[in-house]
């Protein structure tokens, strides 16, 4: 897998306030970018602009040199996760994973979801409604999704929120594996992670 994300001259505002302007960077296969900045600086907005969920005031996002907006190839390659876990309370852990994969038309073999949930420590809780899980366990549902989704580009907003030390270590291993297989990532995070980012982008400082 080889891919390249290019962001050029991106700008966004919230009402009369400018969040960021002239943001430009590149991330290639095997690299990840750390987006840092104080609360309210626009980290989430930046990720949403890259993912095509929020329209930037100006600038462009390119995937392998082509405009990403409206490009089915780009959206098939993108796994976006916001700072909220995006879990449906009435669904079980297993159902939540299957639902998230189905929304992206990702088919997995029988038993793969159970195996992924076992890998993140949720095998015995896979049939429980998500409302009965702790905040950290709900985050682990998202980690199971990372195991199963083949997306080349991860755009993740504070992925370590609510995870304990073991969960943080698990995420680190998943990130290392993703990069080693040619994936790339943009992470909005306050945390220092290994492997270290290829570069950092600071906004609102």
Give a description of the structure.
With 205 residues, this protein is of the alpha/beta class. The protein folds into two domains: 1-77 and 152-205, 3-Layer(aba) Sandwich (Rossmann fold), CATH 3.40.50.300; 86-150, no CATH class. It has six helices and nine strands. The strands form two sheets. The protein has a five-stranded parallel sheet, with helices on both faces. A four-stranded antiparallel sheet has the order 2-1-4-5, covered by helices on one side. Strand 1 and strand 2 form a beta hairpin. The N and C termini lie far apart (35 Å).
Number of strands: 9
Q: What is the CATH first-level class name of the largest domain? A: Alpha Beta
Question: What structural class do helix, strand and pairing data support?
Answer: alpha/beta
Number of helices: 6
Average predicted confidence as pLDDT: 95
Number of domains: 2
